[in-house]
Amino acid sequence: MNGSSGPTNSGHNEAQLASLVKAITDLKQQRTAVRQRRHINGLAIAYGKRNNRTLTLPGQLESSDDPVIREVLDAKATFLNAHAEREAISSTVPIPRATIEKRLRHLMKSLTSNTGVDGVKPIDVERAAFAEFFEIQALHRRVGSLEAANAAMITARERLQQGLAALNKHNRSAHREEQGIQRRLDEAFSAARAMRREVARSNSPSRPTVSVAASESLMERFRAGQPISMDEMHAMLEHSSLFKDPDPTDLTEPTEA
Amino acid sequence: MHTKALVDITPVALVDLIKAKHHQLLNELPGLLEVREQELSRAFAAAKVARTAMAEDSTPSNTHAHDEREAFRRAAESRVYRLREACANAERCMTYWNDETEPWRDLLEARDRVDAGHPPRFKSKNNSGGEPS
After folding, report:
1. What is the pLDDT of residue A3?
2. Is the dihedral of CA A24, A30, A33, A35 positive or negative?
3. Complex ipTM value
4. Of A90, A109, B71, B81, which has the highest C-beta tally within 10 A?
5. Would you say B93 and B29 are in contact if contact means Cβ atoms under 8 Å apart?
6. C-beta of residue A218 within 8 angstroms of C-beta of residue A228
């Protein structure tokens, strides 16, 4: 670029630069929004994990209106309730269903089967067996409740896992979105940098230019040891190979001068 | 008995089954006891004869016969005692389960505790013994 078409191009470039800066600002805002979304998604994923039994909900999540996050929070609350209910029942059922049923059969046989003289027990033993039979029978009913609570917990856990899977997917798409914005931002940065250089170049004062022939004659004068001005020197440097590496063949052959 | 029947049986129904068992026992045991008492009388008499014979002439055969009859007498006596104890137990049980005031209803306290959400009374490796939580 030379300085002849300066004012027109410079104005155009500055307008382009301004639009690029505006685009960069917009992209940065979009990137911040996506990053914020990903941060909240990350909090929700950590909170929703099955092994996290913490009941304190991070404050940023409470105010979130994202349906995917709301679903995870609801599913987590349901799961925690179902888990607590199941644990409460489980702590009162110390033996499994099969053992309970085996014991019921044994007690029933002992109480009602006529096995002859040896089967006749003292009244205290019979009373204790009678009390234990109905205690075990009640325990069997609790096993039924435990199994129902267990099934409810499994359903809640599956719902939570599905919610978390959806949230993970949501988060990955936000990550891709952020990467896309970053790519566009990088391109806009480099375009703006180039445009800034263009504008600076077009705004700097124009230097004197010389033709190749004039440059050659200046070089001749320089070699001859004649004085040259700084402007001429500068113009000559624009075209000459004075400061370039010498031709390698020059090193092996004697100079003509 | 099928598990469902065991789980569904009511206390009254179980008491009826227990009473039926004791009724049957009280029909069977006295006759059996009479037979065993007769057996014991015979065993006692035989042992007495053997003891006298051994006292008069303690030959090995007399000693052996005495030991055998004495062992039989002891076994017969044991059977009679067990039968008498069984008869007495069956009668006590019958009296208890037939009681009009239904004292067995007090035995359902443990069931009610478990139904109310408390752990059972018996100990297990996972439980501290049924203390109310």
Report:
1. 41
2. negative
3. 0.84
4. A90
5. no
6. yes
